[in-house]
Amino acid sequence: MRLLPDKFKLAMSRDLTLANLHDRIAELRGDRAICKLHEPLRYRDFGKRELSYVDAALFVDRAASALRDLGVRQGERVGINTSNNVDLPLLIFAIARAGAIAVPMNYMLKAGEMEYILGNCGAETLILDREVFEANVGEKRALPGITRWIAAGPADECPQGFVSLDDAMAATAGGGAASLDPDRPAAIFYTSGTTGFPKGAVMTSRNLLTAQKIGAAVIPVGPSLTGLFCLPAAHVMGFGAYIIGVCVGLKAYYMRHFEPRAVLEAMEREGAELFVGVPAMYAMMLAEGIDKYDLSRMKMFGSAADAMPEEYVEAFRAKGTLFKLGPYRPKAFFTEVYGMVELAGIATLKIAILGLRYPRGCVGWPLPPVRVRILDEEGRALPPGEVGEVAVSGPGVTRGYWGNPEATAELIRDGWLRTGDMGKKDRLGRLYFVDRAKDVIKCGGYSVFSVEVEKEVLGHPALADVAVVGVPHPLKKQVPIAVVTLKPGEGATEEEILAWCREHIAGYKCPRAVRIIAPEEMPYGMTLKVRKLELRSRFGDLFAGEEWKGKEERETEPVA
User: Are residues 77 and 200 in the same domain?
Assistant: First the structure.
């Protein structure tokens, strides 16, 4: 064990929990930097632009002790909504260390959305910073179920009627070593609510740490590299990326928000070597123009949360350099993860490195001990090559939805989590993501997979992003349409883009209409995944006029 790299020691450790992870890592790495901050924390004892692993462990311990001193009880649900600086993930660990259950929320949520989540899990304690309170809550009576209001951030910004966490942390010496049952609920991560009200996925330390620490061991990067972090840590993907980073030993340049120009400038200025984002982030950076920036030090790019176009992967890989050996400078490698909130992040992993290539749509192999099956509508396992619902078992599978046994029973059957995703496996065991079941478009007699069409539409050189959705049609029941945003300076029209689609895409799945919207109108969720439900609602009456009835279609296909 003594000669093993830190990340392998952590991967093999069976007693890691959210309560002791930072203690263990501080023992291994001491005063090495864990992060450099784009914006300092401004807490009284932690007002630095750079934190060490020891600093992070001390912050978690002091915050946990302060929460206990303020009356937070064992097993109590504690809501937390701050503006995505590094204190957000640290406070999630602190809540678990205090024996409570953390309920992270995205800083963009409004008071009504927060009220539903807090009421659903029965939270009476809420940690906010002044920025989120003033922008999204406004007054305490907007959240009537909260009885203990705690202000994150500097004491001099504590809103009236709040208790300052800064003051409480300064008044405690810390609580020392903490124990936590790895199978006890430690956090509740809420789904995005794209198909109804959000549901709270209950997570234990084992759920949240197992796949992440194994992923950290498998990904071919070592300590002392600089990674750029700007994912929302209130989402399981961002929180999982934070865990992987600290297990590997990276130094993170931590940015509160994603803005394409600022991120590209930071990559160049800070000499970043790793970046993990979602496909929409990559689309926005491509639209900004990556050739204007020196990204040659980048060794790894990563993505999750949505299907990643191969064109994006190759464009970014070509900008980086994995290593230098005389004139030989291979491209950066690209890591993709398939997962979801209910799986605590990682289920499958795909690493494109050197000459290793994958078929289109492949999202990699299950990360042991995760197992993946493809099921038909009766729940029977399908053979390789056949499309069905993806089902997953493994240590990341949620304990269930908080207070919702009916939805839990529908989600988890015989120990297998039904993802609601359509996919297939090949004979090598690799998983292929096809589409979300709810996004499959039933057009005439065909099933049209929106993800597949999106990749094809993105071949148009003027487009920055695209979402393909199905809308009602008087003849076909449903037809696909493409909602697109343009790259800066492009002037393509809807008619020109539609004509291009008809030329390049098979008739049965070709969009029947194109709508151009401004980038700020694309309804991205907290992980920048498009909320297609909103687009279906916005454009749902596109073909509702009487003039469409009986109109001949351009292509021949069976009519359902």
Answer: yes
What is residue 283's DSSP assignment? H
Contact 350, 335 (CB under 8 A): yes
Q: Report the number of distinct structural domains present in the chain.
A: 3
CA distances from 209 to 222, 437, 469, 553 (A): 19, 28, 35, 52
**Dihedral pair phi/psi, residue 28, rounded to 5°:** -80, -35
| Two tokens, residue 513 | 């209409």
* Identity of the residue numbered 526: M
The one-letter code for the residue type at 24 is: R
For the domain that residue 390 is a member of, what is the CATH number?
Answer: 3.40.50.12780
Q: Do both 193 and 277 map to the same domain? A: no
Return the HEC string of 328-343: ECCCCEEEEEECCHHH
Would 36 be classed as within a structural domain?
no
CA distance linking residue 263 with residue 269, whole number of Å? 10
pLDDT digits (tens, 9 = 90+) for 287-327: 899 999 999 999 999 998 777 888 899 999 999 999 998 88
Q: Name the residue with tokens 């784009």.
A: 38
Q: Do 154 and 23 reside in the same domain of the chain?
A: yes
Are 71 and 136 within one domain? yes
Domain boundary among 420, 436, 452: 436
CATH at 66: 3.40.50.980
- CA proximity to 551, closest of 559, 425, 480: 559
Q: Are residues 395 and 460 in the same domain?
A: no
Co-location of 425 and 276 in the same domain: yes
Structural domain span for residue 472: 440-548
Residues 6+ apart with CB under 8 A from 506: none
Domain final position from 436, 461, 492 = 436
Residues 333, 424: Cα–Cα separation, whole Å? 25
What are the tens digits of pLDDT across the range 417-466?
A: 999 999 999 999 999 999 888 888 988 778 888 988 998 999 999 999 99
On the 0-12 / 13-18 / 19+ scale of CB atoms within 10 A, 50 is middle
Taking the C-alpha atoms of residue 186 and residue 180, their distance in angstroms, rounded to an integer, is: 9
- CB-based contact 339:189 (threshold 8 Å): no
Q: Note the pTM of the prediction, 2 decimals.
A: 0.87
β-bridge pairing 300-303 and 333-338:
parallel
The verdict on residue 216 lying in a domain is no
Confirm if 515 and 535 have CB atoms less than 8 A apart.
Answer: no
Q: What is the DSSP letter of 553?
A: P
**How far apart (Å, rounded) are the C-alpha atoms in residues 479 and 510?**
9
d(CA 294, CA 133): 38
Four-point Cα dihedral 228, 233, 236, 239, nearest 10: 60
Closest C-alpha among 378, 412, 407, 380 to residue 396: 412
CA 287 to each of CA 354, 495, 523: distance values in angstroms, whole numbers, following the listed order: 26, 21, 18
